[in-house]
Amino acid sequence: MLAALALARRGLGNVWPNPAVGCVLVRPDLGHRVVGRGWTQPGGRPHAETEALARAGALAKGATAYVTLEPCDHQGQTRPCTQALIKAGIGAAVIAFDDPDPRVSGAGIKRLEDAGIKVSIGVCEDQARTLNAGYLLRVTQGRPLMTLKTATTLDGRVATANGQSKWITGAPARAFAHGLRADHDAIMIGIGTALADEPALTCRLPGLEDRSPVRIVADSHLRLPPEGCLAKTAKEVTTWVVTTARAAGSKRKALEDKGVEVIEAEPGADGRPDLEWLAAEFGRRGLTRVLVESGGELAAALVKADLIDRLAWFRSPKLIGGDGRSAIAAFGIDGIAEAPAFARDSISDAGDDVLETYHRAT
After folding, report:
1. Structure pTM?
2. Which residues are catalytic, by number?
């Protein structure tokens, strides 16, 4: 199952709206030989089980299938994976956990058992749920997993008082950050970051250039320049701009002519796009994992709205001081008990910098 989970990770950021699934076929009668491996392919199809069966061929008969998520049992653009597994003649299935999608939700397990296949559930369940936390959030709560990524000094500053931020962290940390982009469906910034830094928001790791996520800019007044980097490359890399009904029509057309999709969001109390509505819209569009690389204002608004699920915090061994710009702006906390809490998952070196990852504490 651990091998199947490693295969499943290959699909993160590349298979939405589907889950990233891995499948390993093992023949117990051949000395537990692995006869087939598969993972969800780009765009979500073919599914992992189909890929593993294709690689195994006739050797799939009698095999035990280790699958990181309950196989689908509904007819979509491809035939059900349960049907393919039954037809191949597998002898047993070991499944990490059942799929909460109402179209599956136990039906896949029942179909396999009804066909005489022995099914075991719950192996490496926690790891599998963590891997597909974004998919699970979209299915159960209608929104994607949102990870706030930031790079700060030891005292939590992202720039000097005059806005200088290149480079707080070194090349290894920046390369790791591009890896984060590759395994997320979308990356979101605010218009302030877009105007100040004019980022490309692409994955530029050698060999992973095609893994650039959907680019999203929160821009209430459509200030994103049509001649800027993001708009000019919108026909090569999918780009969404989130705005409100107040935005001028001429500005909208100029961006749309460049290939930008403009999303008109419901306004919140402050007149900006309502973030809960926006998270739900991302879910409706199939996004499962969104990486937030915004400045302090949008980061604070998302934290306040309880929409940040994970943190990827790069910390540089530098100090800027209190006049530097903070990673997260004020969001109205009066007491420590009100502060959002996170639990650390890992800490690792990234050159001279440190990367800490967290998940929201329950």
Report:
1. 0.93
2. 49
